[in-house]
Specification:
The protein is an alpha/beta fold. It has a single domain, classed as TIM Barrel. 31% of the residues lie in helices and 11% in strands. The protein contains 16 helices and 10 strands. The protein has a 10-stranded mixed beta sheet. Helix 3 packs parallel to helix 4 and helix 5 crosses helix 7. The termini are close together. The relative contact order is 0.19. The C terminus is likely disordered.
């Protein structure tokens, strides 16, 4: 489920989500990735139930600022690309995170930070806002304070909630940084909780809210996760991977990888190392292309120790396509703006036992459909004159409106302690 306060056009990365390569099923890939997912560190203060980092044998480390500059220099020459600070650690734990962000923005690079939010202070937020960071996405878990604390071992919901509201208040009338929330849920966590209501409440303070699906398959061997495997809201049905056509992973130690799901950084999942090859060379490398054939154009997931456990990096990006379609439909009909909750949980929840409709709706919305899509080099051409051409026409002349001042949390909710039925939010590796 994906909801915007002011519609998809308000998103600072709207041009990526509405581009031909994105809307026409990604294949063949361009000369450079849409996203460079850059890992500032693999150090994190939490021990989350669902996170593969708990099984990782990689030594802790931090991205060297000199390497970051070289990466940014290459991305700078690709104006259609953007950088996401993410990975197997908490980006804000990097001791020079402010300098790192400043180097990217000094080069005019669009920058998104994916964070658990617990290290965000007023001073740091002001620094990031002043330097022009484009988006801060808060990664949460569950749809309530207790759910959040159950999944996010070592975290307190009230600490995070206070920091998110602080960010909204300090941003005030400014357009940037764009503030978003990403949460994931287990099937059992939907019972008695309405994802649509969760989105609506938080959209009074932030710009975008996404509800995703928790994947415990990567940590199925752990004692903590094993009892909850049957509670996953994610169906174990594989689809062809989209990440191999959209993003390149650059780890803090220079490893360049197919995707971000390998917490160990194994050689079998690594293309090469930055410095020995450029990002562009890695993107077009035979090993990358072989991975696209294996899991991007086929369903050979069992041939990879990481991919065999992956069921969610398939059609999740179709949420953006649905959101854009809703936006274009509203524009054509003269509506003020589209309601972009593609899963439609409000309607689905009208029938069946409590929680059952919402469960199906969120699962459908997050999966984006069956996972089938056109294959091979003809895929991009197949969509010409259909979705993208019509979408471009619908978007023409449309202007992104300025966000209103971020409000405090909805009226009537206590400022000290979680409101009744309130939600906590998002997953580790699923940056929408």
């Amino acid at each position: 489920m994906l909801s915007y306060r002011l519609g998809p056009a308000s998103d600072p990365f709207h041009d990526i989500f509405s581009s031909r390569g994105w809307l026409t099923d990604y294949d063949p890939p361009g000369e450079f990735p849409f996203w460079v997912n850059l890992e500032p560190t693999n150090v994190c203060q939490l021990d989350c139930l669902f996170c593969s980092r708990r099984l990782s044998r990689r030594p802790p480390g931090f991205l060297d600022l000199g390497m970051a500059r070289e990466i940014f220099d290459e991305v700078k020459g690709r104006p259609g690309a953007a950088v996401r600070l993410t990975g197997w650690g908490e980006p804000l734990a990097h001791p020079r995170i402010g300098e790192l962000c400043a180097e990217a923005k000094r080069r005019g690079i669009r920058l998104k930070i994916y964070t658990n939010g617990l290290l965000l202070t007023e001073r740091l937020f002001d620094q990031l806002a002043d330097m022009g960071v484009d988006e801060i996405q808060f990664s949460l878990q569950g749809l309530s304070g207790p759910q959040y604390e159950f999944n996010r071992r070592g975290a307190r919901w009230e600490d995070l909630r206070a920091r998110m509201l602080m960010a909204a208040a300090r941003r005030g009338e400014r357009r940037r940084p764009y503030l978003s929330i990403l949460t994931s849920v287990l099937a059992s966590e939907l019972e008695g909780h309405d994802p649509a209501a969760f989105c609506s409440r938080w959209l009074r303070s932030v710009d975008k809210v996404a509800v995703d699906l928790t994947n415990l398959n990567f940590v199925s061997a752990t004692e903590e996760a094993r009892p909850h495997l049957g509670r996953q809201s994610q169906g174990l049905i594989r689809g062809r991977c989209v990440d191999v056509f959209l993003a390149l992973e650059a780890k803090h130690d220079g490893a360049l990888q197919f995707c971000g799901q390998d917490a160990d950084g194994r050689d079998c999942h690594t293309i090469g190392r930055f410095g020995e090859m450029s990002l562009a060379e890695a993107w077009r490398h035979p090993r990358m292309e072989a991975q696209r054939e294996l899991v991007g154009r086929g369903l050979g997931h069992d041939g990879s120790p990481v991919c065999r456990n992956c069921y969610h990096n398939t059609t999740k990006y179709d949420l953006f396509k649905k959101a854009l379609a809703a936006e274009d439909s509203a524009a054509e009909s003269g509506g003020a703006r589209a309601s972009v909750s593609p899963a439609g949980p409000e309607a689905a929840a009208e029938s069946g036992p409590p929680g059952a409709g919402r469960k199906a709706a969120v699962a459908a919305g997050a999966s984006g459909g069956s996972g089938e899509r056109p294959r091979g080099k003809g895929a991009a051409r197949k969509a010409e004159g259909t979705g993208e051409g019509q979408a471009a026409a619908g978007r023409a002349g449309r202007k992104a409106s300025s966000p209103a001042a971020a409000s405090a949390f909805p009226q009537g909710e206590a400022r000290t302690g979680p409101p009744q039925g309130e939600a906590g939010q998002a997953p580790k590796r699923s940056s929408l």
